[in-house]
Design a protein that fits this description.
Layout lengths: L4 E5 L3 E8 L2 E4 L8 E3 L1 E4 L5 E3 L1 H4 L9 E3 L12 H6 L6 E4 L5 E5 L2 E3 L1 H20 L5 E6 L5 H13 L3 E7 H10 L6 E8 L4 E9 L2 E10 L4 H20 L7 H17 L5 E6 L12 E6 H25 L9 E5 L6 H11 L12 H14 L14 H5 L5 H11 L9 E2 L3 E2 L3 E5 L13 E3 L2 E3 L21 E2 L2 E5 L5 E5 L9 E3 L1 E3 L8 E7 L6 E12 L6 E9 L14
Length: about 575
């Protein structure tokens, strides 16, 4: 039986776990630490340092030491959050030829995906040495707020270095699995996961070995890194007033302050004050000036109050989405290194009216949950039965069904693949199948209230799409079918298939696209027919989304370009 690892690839640290002797155990790195700093340093001689060795170089050489790559992976350079972080990052990033993020380190140009690959290869090799066997498969966790491009980028980063990703698992769900391991009581819990780079909150109902995800929300740019940055900005502003020098203008000075700010934040979890003292921080040796700033816990809490309040706001939104109130939760589980802050624990306790559960290791729980899922995938007998199930087909079919509801369920519920795909029947046009990735728009709106496949609305439970006027003149091809099957794969993508009983024997359709209410550009879905020399392109669907009216959900519109040399057969509906 092949060993499959559970990997929590974090913005600050990476942790690996494996299922052994009936329980998940953390794989230590040389020296005994359970986690590896997610740092990579490119040395002048061409060698690469990873983990603690790399982090030790970040002050002396911040230009060639890359960290927090998880926050950048899968994003374009022009992403608003990426642009806002440019001044705060000591290393240099720029736009690549296709708008991707490029990191400059010495004479090299690397990508966030390459950094992730290096770290993943390092921890997998370390696990192989620890276990005494070659390991090349893993369940990797991701923030629930990760979009399709980020998930796919992380998966490819692992595969690039020979690590086969058998599943991507949402981090709060993974932590819940670790917490609930060997627990038999039926409970409704919340997982509050505040890590180094992201905030994820999930509400789950646990019963009979199943974990039913009720709702999920998060912010991919809210974590310990942002608390550190507020300290940096406060101290830098004070220094500028006293000495007239902008610390942000010098990368080495900035990294020194960044490291000191992180240490001060950690110290304030147990102390009432912390002194930030950095001698001779100015790059101009003709002037001598020290950073000397004492930060009290009270000042720190006042400084980070807006960020902390945002975490509770997202908690409230998640409970609202699950149609629950705090008193209906049996437990609130705190996960992630940033939940060690007394201020965060106090705010959560005030909101729920009792103390949260801090019984599991906040730095290791996510990896351990992934190891439990990995063991299940590998065929080992574990008491939990992942994957996590979503609502049943019967629950969906009891009311009006439309794809907007489906997407909203996937987004807010962070739905994991059910053991059996759910089938949703409805009238419509289009013999097509494709992969639709749920997006994570900030306002949680998801297209569409109905879907036009090949130009004619697909009706699910009586809700139909109407083509917005700007798209009404697009060339369309009608292909009648009478069933639509929607399921999810192991990487949280929605699989949509239309055809007789949901089967798509012909035509063959390939492609992956994300639906986003903010985007209207074309996204291709290609249709292939069998040919004597192999598959023949029969046509292309151009996928677009647009809002019909202010406040209404966007509709998916599909125009079609057909290859007359390889037309596909029309199929008339035969009834429900």
């Amino acid at each position: 039986m092949a060993t499959i690892l559970g990997i929590d690839f974090g913005a600050s640290t990476t942790c690996v776990s494996v299922f052994r002797d009936g329980k998940p155990v953390v794989v230590p790195v040389p020296g005994g630490s359970p986690v590896v700093p997610s740092y990579v340093h490119l040395r002048e001689d061409g060698k690469i340092l990873i983990g603690d060795g790399a982090k030790a170089e970040c002050i002396a050489d911040p230009y060639s030491t890359i960290w927090a790559a998880k926050r950048l992976i899968g994003l374009p350079f022009n992403d608003n959050n990426v642009q806002a972080s440019l001044e705060k990052l000591p290393y240099l990033i720029e736009a690549g030829p296709c708008g991707e993020i490029i990191i400059r380190a010495r004479d090299k140009k690397v990508t966030p995906e390459w950094i992730a690959s290096v770290i993943l290869r390092f921890v997998v090799n370390n696990a192989s040495r620890f276990l005494g066997e070659s390991v090349n498969q893993a369940v990797i966790t991701v923030p629930g707020s990760f979009g399709p491009e980020q998930r796919e980028a992380l998966k490819k980063a692992a595969e690039k270095v020979g690590v086969s990703v058998v599943r991507l698992l949402n981090e709060p769900t993974s932590a819940a699995l670790a917490w609930g391991f060997h627990k038999n009581a039926d409970q409704t819990i919340a997982v509050f996961d505040l890590g180094g780079g992201t905030l994820d909150i999930s509400i789950l109902a646990i019963g009979r070995g199943k974990y039913h995800l009720l709702a999920s929300a998060g912010d991919p740019w809210l974590g310990g890194e942002d608390f550190d940055n507020l300290i940096v900005e406060c101290v830098a502003q004070d220094f500028r007033k006293k000495h007239g020098f902008n610390i942000f203008s010098d990368k080495i000075a900035l990294q020194r302050l960044k490291t000191a700010a992180e240490n001060a934040k950690i110290e304030l979890s147990t102390a009432v004050s912390s002194r930030i003292h950095l001698p001779e921080i100015l790059p101009d040796l003709s002037r001598v000036a020290d950073v000397d700033y004492t930060l009290t816990r009270e000042d720190f809490e006042r400084l980070v109050a807006p960020l902390a309040a945002r975490t509770i706001e997202l908690f409230r939104e998640t409970l609202d989405a699950a149609k629950l109130s705090p008193e209906l939760l049996d437990n609130v589980i705190l996960v992630g290194g940033s939940t060690k802050m007394p201020y965060i624990r106090r705010l959560v306790a005030q909101y729920i009216g009792r103390q949260p559960d801090c019984s599991i290791n906040p730095d290791q729980a996510v990896a351990m949950g992934a190891a439990i899922v990995a063991a299940s995938v590998a065929g080992e007998q574990v008491e939990l039965r992942p994957p996590v199930s979503t609502r049943t087909e019967e629950e969906y079919l009891s009311g009006d069904i439309d794809l907007h509801a489906m997407y909203d369920e996937v987004l807010r519920g962070g739905a994991q693949p059910a053991a059996e795909p759910d089938a949703y029947r409805g009238w419509g046009s289009g013999a097509a199948a494709g992969i639709l990735n749920p997006t994570t728009s900030p306002d949680k709106t998801m297209p569409p209230s109905g879907v036009s496949l090949l130009g004619t609305p697909v009706t699910l439970g009586g809700t139909a799409a109407v083509a917005p006027a700007p798209f009404a003149s697009l060339p369309q091809l009608k292909v009648d079918v009478h069933s639509l099957t929607i399921s999810q794969d192991d990487f949280n993508r929605m699989i949509v298939a239309a055809g007789e009983n949901g089967a798509t024997k012909s035509p063959w359709v390939t492609g992956a696209f994300a639906l986003s209410p903010e985007r209207g550009e074309g996204m291709k879905l290609q249709v292939f027919q069998p040919g004597p020399a192999g598959p023949v392109l029969a046509g292309e669907f151009i996928i677009q989304s647009a809002r019909v009216a202010p406040g209404s959900p966007p509709h998916l519109i599909v125009s079609f370009n057909v290859n007359k040399a390889a037309p596909f057969a029309l199929k008339a509906p035969t009834g429900r």
